[in-house]
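Our consortium's second objective concerns turning raw sequence data into structural hypotheses that experimental partners can test. To show how far this objective has progressed, the report includes one record in full. It was chosen at random from the queue rather than selected for favorable results. The single chain below, 135 residues long, was entered without modification.
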Amino acid sequence: MELTERDYELISDCFPKHRGNVRMGNLEVLNALLYVVENGCKWRRLPERFGNWHSVYMRVNRWAKSGVLAEVFAALQSRQLLRLKVEAVSLDSTSIKVHPDGTGALKKTASRPSGRAGAGGTPSFIWLPQMSARR
């Protein structure tokens, strides 16, 4: 899933102009991003042929924050150079915090004595749930 120079020329107007000394062109960075998306690898596992993984990540991150990436993928899909479809979304359990009561954890049962009489002992009432028969 790599783009050629001809494909890049069709969407080159979506990218910002380079400023200063730039070692990697936009096409190389875009192809590195497509490699990560296609193979599901981590940025650190990016093959060396794409250059320094951190440089690629930083540029893609800037593109994502400024809206360039959304514009590029919209242009790729409108010109039918690349078709993307999200089929599955997963959430990592470390990203969603749940209250301990929601995880099925056992409640604390140790008694805490207080100043009131009978607070730490047996309850002063008994509650019995009863089923009512309805027809």
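The partners drew two points from this record. The first helix runs from residue 5 to 11. The chain has a mean pLDDT of 77. Both points have been shared with the crystallography group to help prioritize constructs.
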